[in-house]
Amino acid sequence: MEVTAQVFLKPKKEESLLRFHPWIFSGAIRHIIGNPKEGDVVEVYTASNEFIALGHYQIGSIAVRILSFDPVDINQEFWNARIRRAFEARAALGLTNSATTNCYRLIHGEGDNLPGVIVDIYGDTAVVQSHSVGMYLSRDYIAEGIKQVYGNRIKAIYDKSEGTLPFKAGLNAKDEYIFGSAIDTPVLENGIKFNVSWEEGQKTGFFLDQRDNRELVGKYSKGRDVLNMFCYTGGFSLYALAGGANSVDSVDSSKKAMDMVDRNVEINFGINHNHTSYAEDAFEHLRTIDGKYDLIILDPPAFAKHNKVLNKALLGYRRLNALAFHKIKPGGILFTFSCSQVVTKEHFRNSVFTAAAISGRNVRILHQLTQPADHPINIYHPEGEYLKGLVLYVE
Ligand code: SAH
């Protein structure tokens, strides 16, 4: 892609870039030579006219997302090389050639030095999701890079950016196959089968970021009565069943999600099982369950999507966790999560701590959880750490 403009920073505003932070905020810009459109590739210069980075131009508070700190051409080779490096990192994790897991995140935005795009692999299908116009306009390069790296192992590429692009950009993006067509087979995660619908489901179809945490639930489930709250397609429930739970109840307010849970239970365990589905509000359900469960999972949707609603979100986490502390059996284990990016580890821990104190129960922290290694955090972009979890032993 051609460079269309030069962005010049105010004095000292290059400091975060010297530490390789991948964003430039609009307030850091002194002037622009050229007239870039949203999504164009622009060069960035310091106040003393030295090249410092290049990236995708955006209209909004983040004005440039950095693609490179070197003056390189953003051509097909660039995309191939970045995608290959992401692939090699997943190969090092044993994810690209595993007999038991064939779904994983190939590209995690800033974590893979490609801010504004994620790519998830589900068997033979790659799902690309752009969060910036620059990445959306690069989707043919990205698709070609995926094909170059995987060869004929990838048979379809689905672009699911309709709901994630900046609304104002007016691109009229449509979710669609940009290569191949629908392949309808369940994926495997740690040997457990899941029907994943990237066309209709939330995110890219599945919450790949809970893989390791689901495995831990499996390890604690033997003989326990498990409640999986906000279960979506039943990820935690299936691991609990596989781990030998005495019973598993799954709750989600979405009827569609609960139908998926039932199908997922059936393809793994048949119809004679100890699993019950509830299409119900989580808060309502929690009120009715005195002493029934000795393992509870709380994995709610992000309560805060931006900073303005942070306090309200923290109260929400406190209220939800307080209910679970009140209701869980003595000796129970609580898995509790927050996936809100603006809620820090400390915020979350404080909310859960307050909830525990309100309940008056004796609580130990057994594990502190985060996102898995295929959702890496760029060390220069600590904001990329978004998933937080605590495993608690409740006396
Ligand atoms: N734990 C899931 C992901 C959870 S996503 C997994 O491992 O795949 C959050 C889910 O919460 C969504 O499926 C959404 O439908 C559900 N949800 C949102 N608000 C809810 C509420 N008040 N009660 C019950 N479920 C709710």
TrEMBL record:
Q: Keywords, A to Z?
A: Cytoplasm, Methyltransferase, RNA-binding, rRNA processing, S-adenosyl-L-methionine, Transferase
Start and end residues of each PUA domain: 5-88
Q: Does the keyword Transcription apply?
A: no
- Alphabetized InterPro entries for the sequence: PUA, PUA-like_sf, PUA_sf, RlmI-like_PUA, SAM-dep_methyl-trfase, SAM-dependent_MTases_sf
Q: Which residues cross the membrane?
A: none
* Principal place of residence: cytoplasm
Q: What are its GO cellular component terms? A: cytoplasm
- Spell out the subcellular localization from the entry: Cytoplasm
Q: Name one Pfam family in it.
A: PUA_3
Question: One GO biological process from the UniProt record?
Answer: rRNA processing
Q: Name one GO molecular function term.
A: RNA binding
Which family is this sequence assigned to? Answer: Belongs to the methyltransferase superfamily. RlmI family.
Protein's recorded name: 23S rRNA (Cytosine1962-C5)-methyltransferase
Organism per entry: Acetobacteroides hydrogenigenes
